[in-house]
């Protein structure tokens, strides 16, 4: 039976990470690879696919995967590398490769077909991946670089180091079948062949602790190689390798040395012979090029008068360049980078340009963004254009730069003269909305500038829109903030002299992000960074990679490792995320217990409920938020919560002994916690909102006390706070879900839509286009008031998707879905979608005084329980004639519960 079923090759999973996506129909041979599937170093890749069927209630019953050494063999259905045969299984994600041993540079072509409860599909389109350099000996014998500064550099006080330019010419006289370049350029690189930039990536590779691991990127460069003479060019920037401010606090800031690179260009000719072009001391280099300095905090200085035209092409006179030197390799293990590199993902045109005194101008991008500015300029040779960046303005129209601390955030461009010149930086980024321009001899136009938004090449997978304009704007602000702070690591902010991957910022926030961005690969890489930062005794830092040596020992910051592991496992179904991180998590918990637990109370905390809002906006005016209020209540409650997560993890990997151990330990902690902190008046400790929210949401409150504790929470919000939150970073991660799950989604909505202080709406009402670091970010001491942080999002996005839209996973990866939106007075429409691992889930409802209309999409190979607000099942009708695929289960608290399979549904409820 030839079904109308299409298979979209969603991904090839390596190291539990989705690598490529091709939205293709079976009959369509065109593939759009969203992530380069080259240079894989995992010998047991796993596969996934989407099933797209016009029929409803389609479930996979079997699959067959073919993998072949050539595309011709695959077309002939010859799986000489692997033929899985027909496998009776409903698994369509994380399907493990089980063919012949994969070797370095091997290219594998593959396709899949499936059987369903409705019949058999055709084969999918052909796809491919290729293996990277699996062994140390596959790489060239030497790293090249130059371990010294040049006279024009200043590395003692300013970390000013110019970019290094490398080049190599070679001959290619035969017809080429394929060519692949594998490169490690530290800290950052750009690669050119015959004058053309290779790929679209920028600020590559992703940062790591280079003493632990270094990442390489692989590119198909076949189209760049020409018959005859060829030239390779590479520019090395500083990035995190030649550390920012490295001499400022050597006890705190880790540095790794001068920029260096390792590269292999492998060419395969049509006659079967191969040649390798490797880095060695025959390469030439100079630091006298136009990039005079590049520092992530301070900016980039570019002198166009020093451009060497044709330096990356054959025939260039490099007689005055130096010979490259062999240098010591970094101690980190060489690994293929499985997460996406950064790219220019969006462009913005400025909205205005305003003249200031002294021949200066203020450019307004209209949006707080992260990236850089492209300029077009005309002028005399040697004339300099200066660009200073900031997030906001002072009342007099000047840049507000106090919150940048000592980050200069300045670019300097020296003109070469003549016709119009166009320039943008190469190795820096910053967070900004406004740019102060100086050095112009004429009035520049907004058309001379273009803002380029840069973040990891991660697909946006979620949409969210409601009838409430403030809610929509908060979501938009969240999108801009989350995307901008994806920098190969999840940084806290993009503007000041910090930009660090603080663990505490991303606990529940990463979970919320996962509904908006396809961030599984990104956070899997970060979990590896956290593992690599763990000390032998078990300690985990507050920042990972540990570019800053902060090991303060507390539960809430390092504990993000458990929360992010839970997120990756829950949202993607990747049990290997649990398996890979379990030993490190167990070791850390044992370390904290041995060192700090007394009578089952965890006595060590560092930050408390970090950045709680001052009692009024004026009370916090001019005051620093950098104050710590350690809380043993928080640390003990979190330890308990982590025992519950470890029980889930132990069950997932089949460790029954650990499951019993954590069950016993958790019960003892809960009993000690309640004995110490519970007040018989129905609250914990001093009755702070966070002190009550955490134990209630974590399930620590005795059942007989739950109602009273929740009444105290409600009283705090409604009466004491007059409908506002009063949580810091810790409490805000659980607030919205706690209010919702205990029956007050309306109160959560009140908090979420407040325009007065404190709240997300207050930020917007005061000009925010991203999310502030502080609830009182407009009045606090400017040394700590980033205007682009994500930590205060807490669990807001989770609540948007799981509760307002009603899209929630009952089992890992949304194999079983719960659709249960909250019907809140004043919110008449919610339209949301989430492209899950199995495919698109959509919830779009509109309600009036007389009717509820709810459109739902469920992906193939999944099922859902749908909770429809209705007085009885007789009030519910389905307009798409899909009744045969609907099974009524029960009435449950004013909702008709149905089980449905895949497909599109349109439910109507007459009130």
What do you see in this structure?
- The chain is an alpha+beta fold.
- The chain folds into five domains: 5-130, Sandwich (Immunoglobulin-like); 139-339, Sandwich (Jelly Rolls); 343-456, Jelly Rolls, CATH 2.60.120; 462-683 and 757-803, Glycosyltransferase (Alpha/alpha barrel); 806-910, Sandwich (Maltose phosphorylase, domain 3), CATH 2.60.420.
- 19% of the residues lie in helices and 30% in strands.
- It contains 14 helices and 50 strands.
- Strands 21, 22, 26, 27, 28, 29, 32, 33, 34 and 35 form a ten-stranded mixed sheet that branches. Strands 11, 13, 16, 18, 19, 24 and 25 form a seven-stranded mixed sheet that branches. Strands 4, 5, 6, 8, 9 and 10 form a six-stranded antiparallel sheet that branches.
- The radius of gyration is 28 Å and the shape is globular.
- The model is unreliable at 1-5 and 10-35 (pLDDT under 50).
How do the helices and strands line up, and which of them pair or pack?
Blueprint: E1 5-14, E2 17-18, E3 46-53, E4 60-68, H1 71-75, E5 82-83, E6 87-88, E7 95-96, E8 107-116, E9 119-120, E10 127-130, E11 143-145, E12 164-172, E13 176-186, E14 188-193, E15 196-197, E16 213-220, E17 228-237, E18 260-269, E19 274-278, E20 284-286, E21 291-295, E22 299-303, E23 322-323, E24 325-327, E25 333-336, E26 342-348, E27 352-355, E28 361-377, E29 384-390, E30 392-393, E31 399-400, E32 410-414, E33 421-423, E34 430-438, E35 449-456, E36 462-466, H2 469-484, H3 507-513, H4 520-533, H5 560-572, H6 575-596, E37 597-598, E38 601-602, H7 632-653, H8 656-677, E39 678-679, E40 683-684, H9 689-697, H10 706-720, H11 735-741, H12 745-752, H13 760-765, H14 796-804, E41 807-809, E42 816-819, E43 829-835, E44 840-847, E45 851-858, E46 863-869, E47 876-878, E48 886-891, E49 895-900, E50 903-910
Parallel strand pairs: 16-25, 22-32, 42-46
Antiparallel strand pairs: 1-2, 1-3, 3-7, 4-5, 4-6, 4-8, 8-9, 8-10, 11-18, 11-24, 12-17, 12-20, 13-16, 13-18, 14-15, 14-17, 18-19, 20-23, 21-22, 26-35, 27-28, 28-33, 28-34, 28-35, 29-32, 29-34, 30-31, 36-43, 37-38, 39-40, 41-42, 43-44, 44-45, 45-50, 46-49, 47-50, 48-49
Helix pairs in contact: 3-5, 3-14, 4-5, 5-6, 6-7, 7-8, 9-10, 11-12
């Amino acid at each position: 039976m030839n079904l109308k079923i299409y298979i979209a090759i969603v991904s090839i999973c390596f190291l539990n990470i989705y690598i490529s996506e091709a939205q293709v129909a079976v009959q369509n041979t065109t593939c759009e690879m969203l992530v380069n599937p080259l240079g894989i170093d995992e010998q047991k890749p796993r596969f996934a696919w989407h099933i797209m069927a016009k029929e409803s209630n389609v479930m996979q019953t079997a699959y067959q995967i073919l993998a072949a050494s050539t595309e011709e063999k695959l077309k002939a259905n010859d799986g000489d590398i692997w033929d899985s045969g027909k496998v009776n299984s409903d698994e369509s994600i994380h399907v493990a490769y089980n063919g012949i041993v994969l070797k370095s540079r091997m290219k594998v072509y593959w396709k899949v077909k499936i059987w369903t409860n409705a019949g058999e599909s055709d084969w999918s389109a052909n796809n491919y991946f290729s293996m990277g350099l699996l062994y140390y000996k596959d790489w060239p014998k030497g790293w090249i670089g130059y371990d010294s500064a040049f006279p024009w550099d200043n590395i003692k006080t300013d970390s000013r180091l110019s970019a290094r330019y490398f080049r190599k010419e070679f001959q290619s006289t035969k017809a080429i079948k394929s060519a692949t370049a594998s490169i490690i350029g530290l800290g950052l690189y750009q690669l050119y062949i015959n004058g053309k930039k290779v790929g679209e990536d920028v600020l590559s590779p992703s940062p790591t602790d280079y003493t632990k691991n270094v990442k390489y990127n692989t590119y198909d460069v076949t189209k760049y190689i020409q018959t005859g003479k060829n030239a390779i060019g590479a520019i090395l920037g500083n990035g995190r390798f030649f550390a920012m401010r490295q001499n400022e606090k050597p006890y705190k800031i880790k540095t790794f040395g001068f920029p260096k690179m390792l590269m292999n260009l492998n060419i395969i000719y049509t006659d079967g012979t191969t040649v390798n072009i490797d880095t060695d001391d025959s390469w030439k280099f100079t630091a006298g090029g136009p990039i005079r300095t590049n520092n992530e905090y301070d900016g980039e200085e570019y002198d166009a008068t020093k451009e060497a035209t044709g330096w990356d092409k054959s025939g260039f006179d490099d007689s005055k360049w130096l010979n490259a030197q062999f240098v010591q390799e970094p101690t980190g293990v060489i690994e293929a980078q499985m997460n996406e590199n950064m790219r220019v993902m969006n462009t913005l045109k400025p909205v205005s340009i305003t003249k200031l005194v002294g021949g200066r101008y203020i450019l307004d991008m209209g949006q707080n963004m992260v990236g850089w500015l492209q300029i077009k300029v005309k002028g005399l040779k040697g004339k300099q254009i200066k660009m200073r960046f900031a997030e906001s303005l002072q009342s007099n129209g000047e840049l507000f730069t106090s919150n940048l601390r000592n980050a200069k955030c300045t670019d300097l461009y020296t003109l070469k003269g003549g016709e119009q010149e166009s320039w943008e930086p190469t190795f820096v980024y910053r967070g900004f909305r406004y740019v102060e321009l100086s050095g112009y001899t004429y009035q520049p136009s907004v058309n001379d500038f273009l803002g380029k938004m840069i973040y990891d090449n991660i697909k946006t997978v979620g949409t969210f829109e409601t009838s409430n304009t403030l809610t929509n704007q908060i979501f938009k602000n969240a999108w801009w903030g989350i995307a901008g702070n994806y920098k190969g690591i999840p940084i806290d902010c993009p503007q000041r002299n910090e930009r660090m991957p603080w663990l505490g910022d991303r606990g529940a926030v990463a979970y919320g992000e996962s509904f908006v961005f396809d961030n599984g690969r990104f956070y899997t890489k970060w979990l590896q960074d956290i593992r690599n930062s763990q000390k032998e005794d078990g300690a985990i830092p507050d920042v990972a990679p540990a570019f800053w040596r902060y090991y303060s020992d507390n539960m809430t910051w390092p504990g993000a490792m458990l929360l992010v592991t839970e997120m990756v496992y829950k949202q993607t179904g990747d049990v290997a995320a649990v398996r890979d991180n379990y030993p490190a998590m167990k070791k850390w918990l044992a370390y904290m217990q041995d060192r700090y637990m007394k009578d089952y109370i965890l006595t060590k905390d560092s930050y408390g409920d970090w950045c709680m809002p001052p009692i009024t906006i004026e009370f916090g005016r001019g005051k620093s938020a950098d104050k710590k209020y350690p809380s043993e209540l928080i640390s003990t409650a979190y330890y308990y919560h982590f025992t519950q997560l470890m029980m889930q993890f132990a069950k997932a990997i089949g460790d029954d002994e650990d499951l019993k151990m954590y069950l016993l330990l958790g019960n003892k902690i809960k009993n000690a916690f309640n004995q110490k902190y519970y007040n018989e008046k129905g609250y914990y400790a001093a009755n702070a909102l966070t002190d009550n929210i955490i134990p209630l949401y974590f399930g620590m409150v005795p059942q007989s006390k739950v109602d009273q504790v929740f009444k105290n929470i409600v009283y705090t919000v409604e009466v004491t706070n007059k409908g506002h939150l009063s949580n810091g970073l810790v409490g805000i991660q659980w607030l919205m879900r706690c209010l919702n799950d205990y029956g007050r989604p309306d109160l959560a909505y009140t908090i979420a839509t407040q325009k007065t202080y404190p709240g997300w709406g207050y930020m917007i009402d005061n000009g925010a286009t991203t999310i502030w670091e502080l609830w009182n970010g407009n009045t606090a001491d400017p040394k700590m008031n980033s205007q682009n942080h994500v930590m205060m999002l807490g669990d807001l996005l989770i609540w948007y998707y799981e509760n307002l839209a009603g899209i929630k996973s009952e089992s890992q990866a949304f194999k079983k879905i719960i659709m249960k939106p909250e019907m809140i007075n004043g919110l008449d429409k919610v339209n949301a979608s989430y492209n899950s691992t199995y495919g698109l889930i959509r919830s779009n409802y509109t309600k009036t005084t007389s009717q509820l209309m709810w459109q739902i999409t469920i992906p193939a190979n999944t099922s859902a329980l749908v909770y429809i607000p209705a007085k009885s099942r007789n009030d519910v009708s389905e307009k798409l004639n899909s009744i045969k695929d609907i099974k009524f289960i029960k009435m449950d608290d004013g909702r008709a519960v149905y089980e449905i399979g895949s497909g599109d549904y349109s439910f109507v409820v007459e009130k």
